[in-house]
Automatic annotation (TrEMBL), chains A, B:
UniProt keyword S-adenosyl-L-methionine present: no
Top EC class, one word: transferase
Catalysed conversion reaction: D-fructose + ATP = D-fructose 6-phosphate + ADP + H(+)
Cofactor: Mg(2+)
Name this protein carries in UniProt: fructokinase
Keyword entries, A-Z: ATP-binding, Carbohydrate metabolism, Kinase, Magnesium, Metal-binding, Nucleotide-binding, Transferase, Zinc
PROSITE patterns, per the entry: ROK (PS01125)
Superkingdom, natural source: Bacteria
Molecular-function annotations in GO: ATP binding; fructokinase activity; metal ion binding
Keyword ATP-binding: yes
Cited CDD domains: ASKHA_NBD_ROK_BsFRK-like
Family matches, as Pfam families: ROK
Amino acid sequence: MLIGAMEAGGTKFVCAVGDENGNILQKTSFPTVSPEDTLASAKQFFSSFKMEALGVGTFGPVDLNKNSKTYGSILNTPKTKWRYYPLLEKLQSEYNIPVYLDTDVNTACLGEYYYGAGKHAESCLYMTVGTGIGAGFVGEGKVFQGKNHPEMGHMLLKQHLNDTFVGSCPSHRSCFEGLASGTAIEKRYGRKANLLTHLDEVWEIEAYYLAQGLMNIYVILSPEKMVIGGGVMKQERLYAMVREQFMKLLNDYLEVNDVDELIVPPKLDDEQAVKGAIALAVKNKR
Amino acid sequence: MLIGAMEAGGTKFVCAVGDENGNILQKTSFPTVSPEDTLASAKQFFSSFKMEALGVGTFGPVDLNKNSKTYGSILNTPKTKWRYYPLLEKLQSEYNIPVYLDTDVNTACLGEYYYGAGKHAESCLYMTVGTGIGAGFVGEGKVFQGKNHPEMGHMLLKQHLNDTFVGSCPSHRSCFEGLASGTAIEKRYGRKANLLTHLDEVWEIEAYYLAQGLMNIYVILSPEKMVIGGGVMKQERLYAMVREQFMKLLNDYLEVNDVDELIVPPKLDDEQAVKGAIALAVKNKR
């Protein structure tokens, strides 16, 4: 069975064809331009395969309310050409096969859950720490979805004692993303995060906020695995620092068998979203 | 169909018999003493009814992992007589009917979801603000449960600018419960909350923390209804203050149709847990 997968990112699209076990057979990528031109490039790639379904992980905001008239449409994005674009509807009419759509971070979470670091867990969080902070949660095989999709990057956190930065989030200033995203690090120190690797203080503060965000998620969702990826986490020493801070903040209040197994890096490199798009299609098709 | 319901609280037990629509036909309560004596009082009450199932909402910590050997047992509670007491097992062997068990706050949430303020919502949070802070979440008819049951009262929050209180939580100092429970209010001001009704500052700070806790839950779980009860909320002006702070903190980042319909008081007075215990039994039995 051939499954199509599309990671519709804000700056680039990744298209792939894989089998029902998440193995990618062929893959391509191209910049995100206008909807018409971008989807034409996708069509060109997919046209040489006979696919049975298509899974899509898209940038947002996107309407995921199945009872809504605009279900599957991009909402009020700063990318004006894509604003209110009916992505799901266009893909359905163009490919004439079942099309399933979720956010990019939710499909990334599905990818790690089915084929990656969360493979043997009952529930799994996937969090990406890059320009922004986003997260998805999968439990018992299903992406968690309340009235809206989660916006965990915008929870409010306690300020680090040595941090006087006002925060970089245009909406909330010092929310999680406003304190701990790559953008926040850059604005706090006036230099990009990857030029700050020699400064211990930078990573201590960063680890404190990441641990706090994870602790709040842990007391609310209690995932069996928490997979943390994204550009900022290329600073690999963060994993050990985050685990240590997390245990310190939790202070034995809840039992954690093995924090090294709870807070882990992704296993699918940069392919979690596209593999998750395959999983989305496979699991819904059944 | 007669359903038994038991709210096993740390200081008192409430036992009731109701029908499958959550109507209570008879109810009694008595202090929580030793397990043997308390369950004997329960047995005496229930023995005059022919019940088809029993639902139980219990104080904790309690083992809710169905794969665990100690599933349904009380865990390491400060109430020494109840420590490691196999509550579910004892009830099953005593009553010889199906017995279903969850935490008291989870069953309270089920009660409001099926019969109270969350009746027409797809998903519902129930939070109680009293001596401590606890919360449960029900979506699509099911209590949400990760690896552990939620401990939302222990998330970490930003300190209010005018609040120098170090917090009352023995484990985390200034977590949500350590800043906003009745215990926290009493320790911060040296007087019980109900003696502070004339001091606006008390309730402004309280509303700020409650709004922040709700905002963090909202960006993670996105409930359609958030029902807030418990002793502290008897200070009814808090509802309007919390709603105002919540909208201010959220700052239009997510759409909220009507905050007066999102953040609401309970509708079942103090019967949400016992009615929820009925719902737990009815929905599982089907």
